[in-house]
Each structure stands twice: as C-alpha cells, then as structure tokens.
Write a structure and sequence with these properties.
The protein contains 17 helices and 14 strands. The protein is an alpha/beta fold and 426 residues long. The protein has an eight-stranded mixed beta sheet, sandwiched between helices. A six-stranded parallel beta sheet has the order 11-10-9-12-13-14. Helix 13 links the parallel strand 9 and strand 10. The chain is globular. The protein starts with a strand and ends in a 7-residue tail after the last strand. The structure holds uridine-5'-diphosphate-glucuronic acid.
Length: 426
C-alpha cells in the first residue's frame, strides 16, 4: 500500500485518485477550489463521469479531500499532478498550475516521486527536474505517466488500459510507479521522460488525424455518391487500418483534442518544425463543423428568421463536458445567420452555455415548430425518439444527422428529409 497525493480534483485527478484507492492505496486529493473540496467531502461528485460516484463512495475510507498542500503531501510516496493545462491565446499549453504545484513542494522532506498526469509539452519534465533540483528537492523523483482515458469511459480505460506509459529519469522511480499500478492488467511501456510526453501528444494526434481523414473521405463521398459508413466499415476491416475512430461527423471537440493539437503544433513550430499534416487536421476539423450550416442553407435558403433545434450539446455522449463542443460553434453560427436556436441535452445545463437559445426538456419539445434539426451529440436517447411524431411536430421535417447515428431509410419513411455526413449514397 502506498500513499498518493493527487493535485487537481478534475476529471483526471478524481478518476486517478478513485482508481488508486480501489487498488488499496491511501489517496489524498487536493484542489484549490473550496466549493469543490466541500462537495467531495459531502459525497457529491462535481463532474459527471459514469461509475465515478460509486467508486469514490466505495473507497471513501481510503480517500481524503483537502485544500491544504501540507496535508496532501504528508508522508506521500507519490505526488500525482493532474491539474489543468489549458491553451493560452497563442495555443501553447498554460503550465501555470503545474508550476504552482512544483513551487508548493518546497521544503518537502521525504523522498517521493512527482508523477505528471497532466498533458504537457515535451521538455516539461526536464524543466521540472531542474526546478526541483534548484529548490533543493533532489530527493524527489520525476516520472511522466500520461493518461489515455476518454471521458465517459474513464474508469474502464484506467482499469483496463491498452498500455501504461512510464517515462522516468531514474529507473527506480519508474519501477515504483509500475508497482503502484499492480493489480491493473496492461502492457507497460518504459521509456525516457521526453518520449513519454511525446507518446501522449502523438496518440491524440493520431486519433485526430483519423477523424479528419474520415471526415474528408465523407466529404468526397458526398460529392461522388458513396456512403462513408460503408466505406469506413470496408476499410476498418483491414487489420492494418482497424475500425476505431473512423466515425465521420461534424468534427471532434472536447477538452483534449483541440487543445493538444494546438499545443503540439506550437511545440513543433517553436522547435523550428512546420507540422504540415497536423495543421491540415486542425483546419479540416474547423471546416467540418461549419459544413452543417451549408447543408441547412442548401435546403432552407437563407437561415434568417428560421428556427433550428440542436439535439445534444455535450462534445460527446456520457459526459456533461461542453469544452470545444461543436454545438457551441453551431449555435454561434446559427445566431449569426439570423436563426433562432432551440436545444436539448439530457445532462448539460444548456442555458448556462447558450444564453441566447431556448432549452427544452425533451427532444420532441425542442423540435416543436422548428424548420430543421441537427443531431449534434449521439446520445442514446435519440435512438428512442418517435421520429414520425417528431416529423409531425416540426414545421419542416429536415434533419441533419451530424453523427450518422440514425437510419436514413427509417427517417425518410418517417417523413424526413434526411442528411447525414458523407451519406449521399444512402
Ligand atoms: C481523448 C482520447 O480518446 C483519450 O485517449 C485521451 O486520454 C483524452 O482525449 C485526453 O487527452 O485526455 P476524449 O476527448 O474524452 O478522449 O474523447 P474521445 O472519445 O476520444 O472523443 C473525442 C472527440 O472525437 C469527440 O468529439 C468525438 O465525437 C470525436 N470522434 C471520435 C469522432 O468524431 N469520430 C470518431 O470516430 C471518434
């Protein structure tokens, strides 16, 4: 059993803390937000992540929440950093929360390992190492242990990882972090710190590249009469390609991909390298979100004076996260075009993020009287909608299925003009 301090009670910190507690370790989670710590102490989980509340409750006797650094680091063997690294205006990762944690460790007496879970640019570990040494903390090791958990599936991803990446300056600290994961079955990749940092950024870049690739294939399918869903199935069965991350749609969003792509682009640029492919991946994604507007206009002409329902606001299902969600871009574009926006999402507080829209409690309510609907997030609830009834309640039964979630034939039979993404062949 080890003692683990986790800095940051966000998605990554809470999942990491809960999963280490489940393995039998003593975990103290520290955050700077009093309301967040108070809520956690009361047993309330400030974010929506399936299974997290139960996991925290089940391990409550091994979990402590605090605002106090001294309490968090007392006797800790591992100091996990899981603070946010949001983009700055230039696209670089803002590491100020990381530096605050490093500075707060000044005076730490016991040997421990500082483990970086937050996504950081390559080279951050080396800089932290110097900073620790300058602060007289040579006895604190540094390990990069990036996270690969996806929101909505984070606990499963942590407990059944495709791999655990451990990059250390000193093999003993890497061994200790590997041992901390005992009980979790998954291949361990041991490497240097810079490579571990790059594995994280490159993995996300590879996934984003696949999404932009299939989105461009979808756009060509639209122009040529092929169906991207069949195409993705057909290429995904090639074992060298594989089926994952080939769902065409209105582009990726979330707290990770947009931020990490910009950070990698900036990292390359500041190292003197123009990352041409990544630039294209980002640009394709931006254009993809806007193509929906073009589809609506093709059917409705000008959008001025129309009303459009957005079905789903979260950047993907099973999360309440709307960071960089395509819904925000769409709502903004629609408003700029003079359309009124109605919206539904099963868990997102729509009014808080889209004050100009009217928010409705059910898909059918949001659809009442609108000129068009856009399926933005593939919430399972949308598969249960009575689309024949929906077509009746809309003033014009046009649906742009931004996730290719629904069956075009069924929707057309229900009375809809159906437009998917890259599905002209259907
Ligand atoms: C992503 C990675 O999948 C995780 O491995 C990584 O740890 C995480 O970022 C991170 O860096 O923290 P996440 O952003 O939670 O996880 O969500 P994903 O499930 O990867 O989806 C990202 C976006 O891509 C969503 O907007 C989703 O709708 C979109 N997507 C995904 C597609 O448009 N098509 C696909 O085929 C798959």
């Amino acid at each position: 059993m080890s003692r683990v301090a986790v800095f940051g009670a966000g998605y990554v910190g809470l999942v990491t803390g809960a999963c280490f507690a489940e393995l039998g370790h003593e975990v103290t989670i520290r955050d700077v937000l009093p309301e967040r710590i108070d809520a956690l102490r009361r047993g309330e989980v400030p974010i929506f992540e399936p299974g997290l509340e139960e996991l925290l409750a089940r391990n409550a006797d091994r979990l402590t929440y605090t605002l106090d650094v001294a309490e968090a680091v007392r006797d800790a063997d591992f100091l996990y950093v899981a603070v946010g690294t949001p983009p700055t205006y230039s696209g670089d990762a803002d590491l100020s929360a990381v530096w605050t944690v490093v500075d707060e460790l000044r005076g730490l007496e016991q040997p421990a390992a500082l483990v970086m879970k937050s996504t950081v640019p390559v080279g951050t570990g080396a800089t932290v190492r110097h900073r620790l040494d300058d602060a007289g903390l040579g006895h604190v090791g540094y390990v990069s242990n990036p996270e690969f958990t996806a929101e909505g599936n984070a606990i499963r991803d942590f407990q059944h990882p495709d791999r655990i990446v451990i990059g250390a300056f000193d093999a003993a600290h890497g061994d200790a972090v590997a041992e901390l994961h005992r009980g979790i079955d998954g291949p361990i990749v041991r490497c240097d710190v810079a490579s571990a940092e790059m594995i994280k950024l490159a993995a996300n870049a590879a996934l984003m590249t696949r999404i932009s690739f299939i989105n461009e294939i979808a756009n060509v399918c639209e122009a040529t009469g092929a169906d991207v869903v069949r195409v993705a199935e057909g290429i995904g069965l090639d074992s060298r390609i594989g089926p994952s991350f080939l769902r065409a749609g209105i582009g990726y969003g979330g707290s990770c991909f947009p931020k990490d792509s910009l950070a990698l682009k900036q990292l390359a640029a500041s190292s003197g390298y123009h990352f041409q492919l990544l630039n294209a991946v980002i640009e394709v994604n931006e254009l993809q979100k806007r193509r929906v507007i073009g589809k609506l206009k093709r059917h409705l002409g000008s959008l001025r004076g129309t009303s459009v329902a957005l079905l789903g606001l979260a950047f993907k299902p099973n999360t309440d996260d709307t960071r960089e969600a395509p819904s925000l871009v769409l709502a903004g574009r629609l408003a700029a075009e003079g359309a009124t926006v109605r919206a539904w999402d099963p868990i997102v507080d729509g009014q808080a993020i889209l004050p100009q829209a009217t928010i409705h409690a059910s898909p059918l309510e949001a659809l009442a009287g609108v000129d068009a609907a856009v399926l933005v997030t593939e919430w399972p609830e949308l598969a249960e909608v009575d689309w024949t009834e929906a077509a009746r309640t809309m003033s014009n039964a046009l649906l742009v299925d931004g996730r290719n979630m629904l069956d075009p034939a069924e929707l057309r039979a229900a009375g809809f003009v159906y437009e998917g993404i890259g599905r002209n062949g259907q």
